[in-house]
Amino acid sequence: ALKRLQVDYLDLYFCHRADPDTPIEETVWAMHNLITQGKILYWGTSEWTAEEINYAYEFAIGNNLTPPTMEQPQYNLLDRERFEVEYKTIFEKYKMGTTTWSPLASGALTGKYLEGVPEGSRASLKGYEWLRRHMIESDRGQERMQKVSKYIGIAKDHDLDPVKLAIAWCLLNINVSTVILGASNIKQLEDNLKSLDYLKEFENRELVKSLNNL
Which of 62, 126, 152, 167 has the fewest other C-beta atoms within 10 Å? Predict the structure, then answer.
């Protein structure tokens, strides 16, 4: 992998979801060995449960091994419970960093799915039927769309772009180290980076309260 990437080492290596067929102890040892070999600097978890992270961390410390330093979870205005509730103790106890993904909830928070599935959108593509069900067709999807409609209304009331607002909101959480952006072109990336300009908008407590009560 290092040869394909044309690098000597990785700054951060994520273990995406705990492998149910591999003991966590073995994973911790493997990550520690990669660090001692100089192939990676740090390792992190991705979509692990708080229980799994806690076990891995305690096993590492108890055996003089390198514990995980980062978690890569989903976090946005519609998906908050795991990050804010389940991981709360993990953040307090281990001070782990995070690289959160899906700040726009797979595009839902743009508002583009409120009138159905637009042609060319990810949910319209073959193989993404699961996303349509999750986003729109299921009862849970309908509930989420109601929240999206309310959210778009809040953004309009404050004359704010919903995309930039949603990304900036993620950065409000003290436990968010990085927000992963899914830009498909340079202009989109540049627009998304302007979300940083929206942080000052959260001085408006009414806005923050409205968003947190979606």
Answer: 126
- Sort residue 120 into left (φ over 0), alpha (ψ -120 to 50) or beta: left
* pLDDT 10s digits, 74-103: 999 999 999 999 999 999 999 999 999 999
The Cα-based distances of 193 to 75, 148, 159, 199 in angstroms read 18, 22, 18, 12
CA atoms within 13 A on the CB side of 198: 23
b/e for 1-40, b at 16 or more Cβ within 10 A?
A: eeeeeeeeebeebbbeebeeeeebeebbbebbebbeeeeb
Which pLDDT band, with edges at 50, 70 and 90, does 182 fall under?
A: confident
Going from N- to C-terminal start, the domains of the chain cover 104-177+186-214
Helix, strand, or coil (residue 69): coil
Sheet arrangement for strand 97-100: 10-16, 40-46, 70-71, 97-100, 178-179
pTM: 0.91
Q: How many CB atoms lie within 10 A of CB 206?
A: 10
